[in-house]
Amino acid sequence: MNDAVLSPPPVGQPGGPKVLLEVFGCQMNKLDAELVVGALKRSGYDFTDRDEEADAVLMVTCSIRDQSEHRVHSHLGALEVAKRQRPDLAVGVLGCMASREGEALLRRWPGLDFVLGTRDFPTVARVLDEVRADRTRVVAVDGSPQVSEERSIEVRPQRSRAFLTVMRGCDKRCTYCVVPNTRGVEVSRPMEEVLDEAHRLVDDGVVELTLLGQTVNAWGRREGRSLGELLERLEELDGLRRVRFITSHPEEMDDPLIDAMGRCRKAGLFLHLPPQSGSDAVLRRMARGYTADRYREIARVLKARIPGVQLGADVIVGFPGETDEDFEATVRLLEEVRFSQAFLFRYSPRPGTPAWGRMEDDVPEDVKRARLARLMALQHAIQEERHRSLVGTRHEVLVEGVSRRDSSRLFGRNLAFDRIVFEGDPAWTDSFVEVEIEESTSLTLAGRPVGAPAAAAR
Ligand code: SAH
Ligand code: SF4
Ligand code: F3S
């Protein structure tokens, strides 16, 4: 078993055939996996987290870096062996790798029964039924851009929090990125559909919504709508306390959205706004559509208009042609903007992307590693300093559950999305608790609860 397996497994139909579901990649995959769980449950399937009792193994996969695909291929290799002993075991690949590789996956892995792309997963139950009954092999990787989101809203890992897809696909062509190939063209879901789903989730106890889209701040632009308008509508939704949205693109950040964020108290104090690099030459080759100074300006306006707002980063080091000077420009950007969290990656060339075959992966691996290590050390120091400054302050924390690393403690997040651990009763999960920070490191904030928890999920 590996950490991509959902453990404990979702609640299915007792007595039904058992599915082991593995989920890799980003939040979109996590939500797609919930939709898959809902569809399978409606069709009578049950779930397990144990290989040996599974009737079917399904993987919701990610293609973003070579390593992401590597893990899935090694598991498919192991399943080939398992299938020799248990020919009835059904094996399916869903998600981004399915869209990217399609038929080729079936050719490479004779034990694989079906491949369903990122816009085809709504058919998963029918396909799995078919495969189990007839032992046919199925490939579907060309679903309509308008994915029908038949959602069983009660199927979600946590009562108080939920993801909500507001847009699928991506129309940018960042030269390193496979997502436009795997997720297809950008389609925003209509306002009414989004609000209806939000209402249903809130009625079912959700107090924190995370709106998902690859360029979520461009939501609705083709239909004359804007994310700011959606935030204002959600602000009026009684019972909903927090609204997050990921991921925003710097090129799509505009003043009306920043103003709306400032007005909407539920929108919180955190914005994931990946700069990717601090070098204009690299940003140009990445086709990101902004300069480092434009990024600085957006960060400045955000911080001026939304007191206390924190920014989150994604950064790629070792992009083709990245010189020492380019890298130093990225170091400066991190030093100046002082992100509250940052995901740092080494560039991984991906087949089918605009950079593939056109830009040589010419930064040696050891240089990439050294640059990554330097950024990590810098980011640690920045976080450590910020965390230290928070000691003694109080925060309203939405409790997510028992800490995995220390089962005697709970963890949750404040409005700025900082993770905070503290001692308390596991029954407080899904409630809001006031916590005073007492200790900090670069990675954690630890505190003690002040007063009794306020019930959140109803
Ligand atoms: N839509 C989001 C991010 C999608 S992918 C956005 O535009 O910001 C998540 C992150 O993975 C990216 O922000 C990028 O930093 C990283 N990433 C994407 N492709 C990569 C590649 N080929 N090599 C290394 N990191 C990559
Ligand atoms: Fe990829 Fe760029 Fe689209 Fe983000 S905006 S998903 S990085 S192509
Ligand atoms: Fe990976 Fe696909 Fe998400 S490639 S990062 S799972 S959109």
Question: What can you tell me about this protein's structure?
Answer:
By secondary structure, the protein is of the alpha/beta class. The strands form five sheets. The chain has a six-stranded parallel sheet, sandwiched between helices. A five-stranded mixed barrel has the order 15-16-17-19-18. The model has no long low-confidence stretch (mean pLDDT 94). The protein contains 13 helices and 19 strands. The longest helix has 26 residues, at 365-390. The protein has four domains: 18-140, Methylthiotransferase, N-terminal domain (Rossmann fold), CATH 3.40.50.12160; 158-268, Transcription Regulator spoIIAA, CATH 3.30.750; 276-287 and 301-389, Transcription Regulator spoIIAA; 394-455, Nucleic acid-binding proteins (OB fold (Dihydrolipoamide Acetyltransferase, E2P)). It binds S-adenosyl-L-homocysteine, iron/sulfur cluster (SF4) and FE3-S4 cluster. FE3-S4 cluster binds at residues 25-26, 28-29, 62-64, 95-96, 178-179, 182-183.
Please summarize what this structure is.
The protein has 458 residues and is of the alpha/beta class. Helix content is 34%, strand content 21%. It has helices at 27-42, 66-85, 96-101, 103-108, 124-134, 179-183, 191-203, 227-235, 255-263, 280-286, 292-305, 324-337, 365-390; strands at 18-23, 46-47, 56-61, 90-95, 114-116, 138-140, 161-165, 167-168, 187-188, 208-212, 242-246, 270-272, 310-317, 341-346, 394-402, 409-413, 419-423, 432-440, 445-449.
Q: Give the helix tally.
A: 13
> What is the CATH C-level name of the largest domain?
Alpha Beta
How many independent structural domains? 4
Question: Which ligands does the model contain, each kind named once?
Answer: S-adenosyl-L-homocysteine, iron/sulfur cluster, FE3-S4 cluster
Q: In the CATH hierarchy, what is the superfamily of the largest domain?
A: Methylthiotransferase, N-terminal domain
**Rg of Cα set:** 22 Å
Flag low-confidence runs. Answer: none
The CATH topology of the largest domain is given as Rossmann fold
The overall strand count is 19
Helix content: 25-40%
Mean of residue pLDDT values: 94
Q: How many angstroms separate the termini?
A: 34 Å
Strand content: 15-25%
Assign the CATH architecture of the largest domain: 3-Layer(aba) Sandwich
Q: What would you call the structural class? A: alpha/beta
Oligomeric nature of the chains: single chain
